[in-house]
Design a protein that fits this description.
It is a single chain. The radius of gyration is 28 Å and the shape is flat. Strand 5, helix 8 and strand 6 form a beta-alpha-beta unit. With 475 residues, the chain is an alpha/beta fold. The chain folds into four domains: 60 residues; 158 residues, Glycogen Phosphorylase B (Rossmann fold, 3-Layer(aba) Sandwich); 72 residues, no CATH class; 149 residues, VC0802-like (2-Layer Sandwich).
């Protein structure tokens, strides 16, 4: 039993005892009352305690819902020794809590990039040697793989590849079109094709997924084994009146999950039904993000580590009594600086720069410009190792006087509403940073003045955010 389950069961017991005690008080009031009734507050306390006790039991049951623990426990029950190897990043707090309840389980984390990351190399290739070494050490009867890449290589044991999903079928189902025919997707297709062809057995969790593997990658012998749960994990059944609430948990950024459809549904339902979404809103690559803005729908963003905190509300409009409502900063940006005399008179210069980024599969954050200069700000994980080749392409196509990379940039956003009606907001931002002895590397501001973006050295980020906060703090 995990710590979370123990806490839930303890809470259920406490609520139940409160219900019993309040029931005794309720009976006493009824015995003394001429109409055999008890006060409303006693009735509410009695009923609420019993309801919360049942709710706590439900939460404890939900802790059993993960399929992975069921598989591991089932294998152990059959007498099989299992070594679990996390091919992707380190497990999170919930996974570590579960692992702590299974000290006998052999768990190893490779902490390697997954094949569908924006730039998995060279980490993916390097992880192959570590996986081979683990197989040689453990000498398993079979290697169960949830990543296609490793199925193409001899590991020293039969390889079972499970095709839970793939980028091509995801792209077609979620976006209703074929994925781009670029270098990344061609390489990914080849990895999947070779991994499926090299496996001794291929499994899909549904008939639809099996058909996708056959159609996209030419694999014919695909066995369908549906995901399942142990019946013992569903020993409780809810018979009370259901609440008008919709809860979805998962990768919010993943279009294939359909979570974004609930945003539109929430707009139609209004306040009649509460819609709760839980999960990461940005992908590991940083390219996909969940659209937290939706017309007419107030959104409450909370910290999963401190759920009791009221968090931040995102609303369509707010009363602009104070121009600044938020200050946030982030490290990890690189700026491409391009200089060319009379650049502003050269038609299509900006288009050429953006086309070069598109050809390299790189998106940009900001693009401040002047008469003879233009700068492109890109996240480091997005730029990856494309920097030198992008510079060469800019030199060849745009023929600038000078082009260079400036790494180590941190961006700070001062966000508000109605800043275009307040004099001196931008001046106050710049003055506060200057008085803190911090040099501004870039400033970018749109005509709506919804936000002002400044760039500083990464080492100055914390001090700059504090200086701006102190300048606008009304306390």
């Amino acid at each position: 039993m995990t710590l979370a389950e123990k806490i839930c069961l303890t809470a259920a017991l406490l609520f139940f005892m409160a219900g019993l005690l309040s029931g005794i008080g309720k009976y006493g009031h009824m015995a003394r009352s001429a109409d055999a009734k008890s006060p409303t507050y006693v009735n509410v306390a009695h009923r609420s305690s019993l309801m919360y006790s049942f709710a706590a039991l439900l939460v404890a049951v939900f802790g059993h819902y993960s399929l992975f623990p069921a598989v591991v426990d089932a294998l152990a029950a059959l007498g099989h020794e299992t070594t679990v190897v996390a091919l992707g990043p380190e497990p999170g707090p919930v996974q570590r809590e579960w692992l702590a309840t299974r000290p006998e389980l052999d768990f190893i984390a490779l902490n390697a990039p997954l094949e569908w990351y924006a730039e998995p190399e060279p980490g993916l290739t390097e992880s192959l040697d570590r996986l081979r070494a683990l197989v040689a050490e453990k000498r398993p009867d079979i290697v169960h793989l949830n990543q296609y890449y490793y199925g193409a290589f001899e590991l020293g044991a039969p390889r079972l590849v499970v095709g839970h999903s793939d980028v091509v079928s995801w792209w077609r189902a979620a976006r209703r079109q074929d994925p781009p025919d670029d270098a990344w997707h061609r390489r990914y297709r080849e990895w999947v094709r070779l991994g499926l062809a090299g496996a001794q057995a291929v499994v899909a969790p549904s008939g639809w997924m099996a058909e996708q593997l056959r159609a996209q990658y030419g694999v014919h012998d695909v066995r369908v084994i549906h995901n399942a749960r142990s019946p013992a994990r569903f020993r409780f059944r809810r018979r009370s009146r259901r609440e008008r609430i919709v809860v979805a948990a998962g990768r919010l950024w993943d279009e294939g999950k359909g979570v974004v459809d609930l945003v539109g549904a929430a707009a139609v339902l209004g306040g009649d039904v509460q819609v709760v979404l839980a999960g990461p809103e940005a992908s590991p690559s940083g390219r996909e993000r969940f659209p937290v803005r939706a017309p007419g729908i107030p959104i409450n963003i909370r910290n999963t580590n401190e759920p009791e905190n009221p968090g931040t509300m995102i609303v369509p409009e707010r009363e602009a009594t104070f121009p600044v409502c938020g200050i946030a900063g982030r490290k990890g940006f690189t700026m491409i600086n391009i200089e060319k005399a009379l650049m502003n008179r050269e038609r299509g210069f900006g288009r050429k720069v953006l086309q070069i980024l598109d050809e390299h599969g790189v998106s940009f954050e900001h693009m401040p410009s002047g008469i003879d200069t233009v700068s492109v700000i890109i996240r480091d994980e997005e730029l990856a190792n494309h920097g030198p080749s992008i510079l060469k392409s800019i030199e060849r196509v745009c023929q600038p006087d000078r082009v260079m990379l400036s790494p180590g940039l941190a961006l700070i956003a001062t966000v508000g509403q109605g800043m275009n009606h307040k004099i001196g907001v931008a001046a106050k931002v710049c003055q506060s940073v200057a008085e803190a002895g911090i040099n501004l590397r870039v400033i970018d501001q749109g005509s709506s003045e919804m936000n002002i973006i400044i760039g500083v050295n990464e080492a100055d980020l914390t001090a700059a955010v504090k200086a701006i906060y102190d300048a606008f703090d009304t306390k």
